[in-house]
Amino acid sequence: xxxxxxxxxxxxxxxxxxxxxxxxxxxxxxxxxxxxxxxxxxxxxxxxxxxxxxxxxxxxxxxxxxxxxxxxxxxxxxxxxxxxxxxxxxxxxxxxxxxxxxxxxxxxxxxxxxxxxxxxxxxxxxxxxxxxxxxxxxxxxxxxxxxxxxxxxxxxxxxxxxxxxxxxxxxxxxxxxxxxxxxxxxxxxxxxxxxxxxxxxxxxxxxxxxxxxxxxxxxxxxxxx
Length: 225
Fold this sequence. Notes:
Elements: H1 3-27, H2 39-46, H3 50-62, E1 66-69, E2 73-76, H4 81-102, H5 108-124, H6 130-144, H7 151-167, H8 178-194, H9 199-221
Helix pairs in contact: 1-3, 2-3, 4-7, 4-9, 5-6, 5-8, 8-9
């Protein structure tokens, strides 16, 4: 390996390290919405130059987790209920479509894995942990759109999930009763796929599953509506 290639590989690894470090702090809410991302301070904390930190911030900006304003600089994106609603609506469409495309290609092993994850979700209901339930929920849906042949679509889904993690630690913290319904709807999704339902039917079921969570959240936030 040449010196230039080695240097380039080192720079890439530092940029990836900075990206993962920053993203973890944003998603976990250690860096809260509006938190200013000062290059020199972050670089000093990470023990790197400002170059990989700047590259990491650009990646996070592309994901919608960071914004850049003139005379202010980079900061963790501000959030509001409207943004949460639009993110959930968008995710319902793209995740539903990805699941529909994936459904005919899923194997018996894939479905067995999805069912096992859903069983673990059901077990958490007795001593409910919203964060753990949300983690398992992502694992479950990742299996269902695992075989989607459209990589751009699955990338949009994952970006939507990243955005949701920043907007809400877990929607189920606000509507814990929704978790029971969610597990039942997972059973229905698996049944549709196992019985060879049309992809459009699977897509609509996955979309309705996501919007039902949004509707439950909005009802809890605005009970008079």
